[in-house]
TrEMBL record:
It catalyses: Hydrolyzes single-stranded DNA or mismatched double-stranded DNA and polynucleotides, releasing free uracil. Residues 101-256 form the Uracil-DNA glycosylase-like domain. Pfam families: UDG (PF03167). Its EC number is 3.2.2.27. Gene3D superfamilies: Uracil-DNA glycosylase-like domain. Keywords: 4Fe-4S, DNA damage, DNA repair, Hydrolase, Iron, Iron-sulfur, Metal-binding. It is an enzyme of class 3 (hydrolase). It comes from the Bacteria. It comes from Methylacidiphilum infernorum (isolate V4). Belongs to the uracil-DNA glycosylase (UDG) superfamily. Type 4 (UDGa) family. GO terms for biological process: DNA repair. This is Type-4 uracil-DNA glycosylase. CDD domains: UDG-F4_TTUDGA_SPO1dp_like. NCBIfam families: UDG_fam4.
């Protein structure tokens, strides 16, 4: 197996940057690896060293991988434009401030799906930024990840309309979710996550079409969904209103399941969260 010299690595890197420039990139953001990513990278490098296969070996199609990832980003951008121009639900269009497409890593292995944007999300154009979103961020951090490493979206891309003068948020109807579902399914197809966490019964209903299912009936279980593992759990807003250790532990057990499915390391401290 031919070793790749420093000069050849530089040439490969130059070609990759040329490809990225062709795709329209003008700058690159390289976040610091989390301890999980660092261990994963070290494990990969160790495996490559043992097998003799290297990331930049002649047998590797890394340039094709770069092109494929660039295509995903481009397709997601085009899909976002379609969502922004959507007028399928006139009553939602007239009520919304803006659509809320999704946020995070477009190549994430873990995706969180909620039901619909709330007031804060509608104003900022980003999912889960209100109180429930702040709790979700803490949950993701407890897993050893960040919002930038996962992908977060909703079944509905518009905030459900409410009567003038009323506050709060309305649960989206089955018809509204079925109308908007193709956008989410397109996101899932492009991102191709290994694990999908459905936040709440409405998100589970929107994804599966199963009406009238209580989240307590399906949480704690795993389902196959379009090639991914679907894990239903309570919505963060449920924990805000029912903040008992028992409820927090149930949600955490679902997240531990997700971590296990992804092959993430789980510390003893993480295993014991919310047990006392």
């Amino acid at each position: 197996m031919e070793e790749i010299s420093h000069g050849k690595r530089t040439l490969f890197l130059y070609k990759y940057l040329e490809i990225l420039r062709f795709l329209g990139y003008s700058s690159l953001f390289l976040p610091r690896l989390s301890s999980f990513d660092a261990r994963k990278q070290a494990s990969l490098e160790n495996k490559e060293a043992k097998t003799g296969k290297h990331f930049l070996s002649k047998e590797d199609n890394s340039s094709q991988l770069v092109l494929a990832k660039g295509k995903v980003t481009k397709e997601l951008s085009l899909l976002k434009e379609k969502v922004e121009a959507c007028r399928n639900c006139p009553h939602l269009v007239s009520f919304r401030t803006q659509t809320v497409f999704g946020t995070g890593n477009p190549y994430a292995e873990l995706m969180f799906v909620g039901e619909a944007p709330g007031a804060e999300e509608d104003l900022q154009g980003e999912p889960f930024v209100g109180p429930a979103g702040q709790l979700l961020t803490k949950m993701i951090r407890a897993m050893g990840l960040s919002r930038e490493q996962v992908y977060i979206a909703n079944v509905l891309k518009c905030r459900p309309d409410i009567p003038k003068g009323q506050k709060g948020n309305r649960k989206p109807t089955t018809e509204e979710m079925s109308t908007c579902l193709p956008y989410l399914l397109s996101q899932l197809k492009l991102i191709n996550p290994k694990v999908i966490v459905a936040l709440g019964a409405t998100a589970y209903e929107g994804l599966t079409g199963k009406v009238g299912i209580k989240i307590s009936e399906v949480r704690g279980r795993c389902f196959s969904f379009n090639g991914a593992t679907l894990i239903p759990t309570y919505h963060p807003s449920f924990l805000l209103h029912n903040p008992s250790l028992t409820n927090k532990r149930k949600v955490w057990e679902d997240l531990l399941t997700a971590m296990g499915k992804l092959g993430m390391p789980i510390s003893e401290k993480q295993r014991n969260y919310f047990l006392s």
